[in-house]
Design a protein that fits this description.
This protein has about 110 residues and is α+β, with helices and mostly antiparallel strands. The protein is built from 5 helices and 4 strands; from the N terminus they run H-E-E-H-H-H-E-E-H. Strand 1 (about 15) and strand 2 form a beta hairpin. Helix 2 (about 25-35) packs across helix 3, helix 2 crosses helix 4 and helix 3 packs across helix 4 (about 50-65). The model is unreliable at about 5-10 (pLDDT under 50).
């Protein structure tokens, strides 16, 4: 379990039945990168409340699935979301990644 921080406390507050959230860490990573495509993995890990190694695996998963692309800019990476990519699970397959982000990322961000 990830250590508790101010970021994790605000994200995964205990509720009746235990601490859980509606979205997965994969969607949390996508939402954070949609808000700031220049985030470092370390900062992304802090925001999501997981380890940097876990974030690295999730970013690799999302890139392999075609949900984001990674571009090197100097010593940093920039992540671009592929908003038109269909979501993976059969329950949500009729939607694209951009539908989720449209609901979770304020316009203008």
């Amino acid at each position: 379990m990830a250590p508790r921080t101010a970021a994790t406390d605000s994200v995964a507050s205990p509720v009746a039945g235990g601490a859980w959230t509606f979205l997965t860490n994969h969607s949390h990573v996508l939402i954070c990168l949609a808000r700031d495509p220049n985030l470092r993995l370390r900062d992304l890990a802090d925001q999501v409340g997981i380890t940097e190694r876990a974030v690295q695996g999730i970013v690799n998963d999302l890139e392999e699935a075609g949900c984001l692309t990674r571009h090197r800019e100097g010593r940093r990476n920039r992540y671009d979301i592929v908003a038109g990519r269909p979501m993976r699970h059969q329950v949500e397959r009729q939607h694209v990644v951009g539908d989720l982000l449209g609901a979770m990322v304020p316009i203008g961000d």
